[in-house]
Amino acid sequence: MVKLNKIYTKSGDDGSTGLVSGSRVSKASVRVEAYGTTDEANAAIGVTVAVAEREGPGGTKRLVAVLRSLQHDLFDAGADLATPMAAEEAPGAALRITPAQTERLEGLIDEWNEPLEPLTSFVLPGGSETAATLHVARTVTRRAERLAVSLRDEEPGTTSAEVVRYLNRLSDLLFVLGRAVNHAGPGDVLWVPGANRDPA
Q: Can you give the pTM of this predicted structure?
């Protein structure tokens, strides 16, 4: 159980922060960037939940339930990234993203993508407000994934490969959810290559 009584400690005033292991690293480290951006993705999904609940119809209840479950997963992912893997770490010794969590995303992608028409072009972020915020969450998640990959490349023995896979699938799911929301409303906004090259 997490218990927070004091919000500021002043211990980070020197530009360092504490990891779950107790060790301290620079707030500019790739590890902190990775779990910080994962937290940013979680916040972006929170905005989507608020917008979806306000916008109303179009499968909102089911969408919000899915998004809330993703927010719990993203806290798991942040804890995973904030905890360097120990050599020969025992299963369950630290909170890690599991293959089952990644597989659940794949099932959700298949479920929400099934009724959609195949794409004939790239999708512009937009359509409904809910879909637009899902695209923001998607792009932040992609950035979190890139940072997690950088961390894995920098510290391969201490970084979970599963959290990278999870973030990869999550960005795919957010893309599909954005399309599904637009399918129930205004429709996708498609990219027109070279639309503005010739003067009107």
A: 0.86
